[in-house]
Amino acid sequence: MIEKYQSKLPDMTLAINARSEGRVLVPWVHLQYPNSTNQDSSTGLAAMLGGADPGAVDKDAHLIPDWRGVGSVWDAYRQTCPPGTEARRLFQSIQGHGSRPSAFSRAQTHLESEAGPSKDNDDPYQGAGSDFSFVPNTQEGFDYCGHPSLHTQSGHFFSDWRTIPALYPVLSPAKAPGFSDLVIPSHYYYASTKRYTYGYDSINTVVKDIDDMEFPWDRKVDKVFWRGATTGGGSSPPGFMTQYQRHRFVRMTSSHSEHNRTVVYAHPSKPNEYFAHKVAHKDLNEHMVDAAFTKAIGIIPPDARE
Hints:
- The protein has two domains: 1-183, no CATH class; 215-306, no CATH class.
- It has helices spanning 28-32, 45-48, 73-78, 103-106, 245-253, 281-288, and strands at residues 15-16, 170-172, 182-183, 200-201, 206-207, 224-229, 260-266, 274-280, 289-295.
- The strands form four sheets. Strands 1-2-3 form a three-stranded parallel β-sheet, with no helix packed on it.
- By secondary structure, the protein is of the alpha/beta class.
- Residues 131-300 form the Glycosyl transferase CAP10 domain.
- This is Glycosyl transferase CAP10 domain-containing protein.
- Residues 97-132 are annotated as: Disordered.
- InterPro entries: CAP10 (IPR006598).
């Protein structure tokens, strides 16, 4: 990433997080009253966290990288929320996704649509009708402080890796709202691997135009294809894995339900006109999707095994 101009840079040590989950979660009170905590990162991260040995050569020697059963990402995230928000309550109820009222249908996102905010009675899951329109924005700015029950559906809140409760300059490939990491491009864009890089020749260490496992175009099928591990981040605390995004995706795409789902498609000769057609869920999956897990990571609850 910095190869072209590294000769102009001083000798530096950069803290790079190779994981896809953010690591820096600074409590709200520390951001509002910065003088109450040590924010000098030059003495090492452990010193900022109050665990450094002044005479040690490695100032970060006492850091514990994972949770080891004590604490979780969500516990740390709650402390970043302002006082008075739902996430700061000592007790909370877990509300199932899709129940009324829906937290997602009421969420205020950072990307306001041209039509204005959604009304409380709007159903974002209804099929095409006379007033049908596509979703104008995403939920990338979803407020977990205001709707804490929805955190159980996001795997990054269950990462095994301990978060950092101090303003330390960690460079990460991704982060969710509320994290204070500095975002940089993923290392996968700069370092090829046999597992993740298409066309990578591990013997000659080059990337070929066509992968050895590639299928001829006339042998391909018109389906959404996905394979992957059950999780890429961990399961701390355990017991919520079946609610992660990957699990919900595979469960949805492998369903044999007879219930109908509404498919919206454009008219072949009139691209600006859309029509709705009801198809059984199992038929929709059979004709459109091929998704499955290839590797189980962590402890899988007995009721989730098939």
